[in-house]
Inverse folding.
């Protein structure tokens, strides 16, 4: 979706995909910003919302529970924004509690640095 074709071309090749429920908020805020900046017309906005809904149906969403919030508040090995800390904490808890091998699908270079510092391979950044 929106300039992430190389990442989305791999979508569906994974056994399972997860995200913090924060993803839906972030995507919708981005779409609203793009609409207000006239970077998306009505057709583009409708298409982006359809793709967002399709993506959300295809992935497991992890709630922002107290353990996730606590984990996100702990020190990180690199500079991390609050929203990135929530995504990283979600991944760490999934890895610990479910024993999953996790790779980050990511577009933000700083978050990729933090994810790699925590031992996660990254796709897209």
């Amino acid at each position: 979706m929106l300039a992430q074709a190389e990442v989305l071309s791999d979508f569906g090749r994974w056994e399972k995909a997860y995200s913090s429920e924060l993803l839906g908020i972030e995507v919708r805020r981005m779409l609203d910003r793009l609409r207000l900046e006239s970077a998306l017309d009505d057709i583009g906005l409708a298409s982006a919302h359809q793709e967002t809904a399709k993506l959300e149906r295809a992935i497991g969403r992890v709630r922002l529970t107290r353990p996730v919030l606590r984990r996100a508040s702990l020190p990180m090995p690199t500079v991390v924004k609050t929203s990135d800390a929530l995504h990283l904490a979600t991944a760490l808890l999934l890895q610990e509690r479910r024993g999953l091998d996790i790779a980050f699908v990511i577009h933000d270079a700083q978050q990729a640095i933090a994810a790699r510092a925590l031992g996660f391979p990254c796709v897209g950044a």
Notes: Residues 16-59 form one domain. The chain has two domains: 16-59, 63-125. Helices lie at 5-8, 22-36, 42-58, 66-73, 82-98, 109-117.
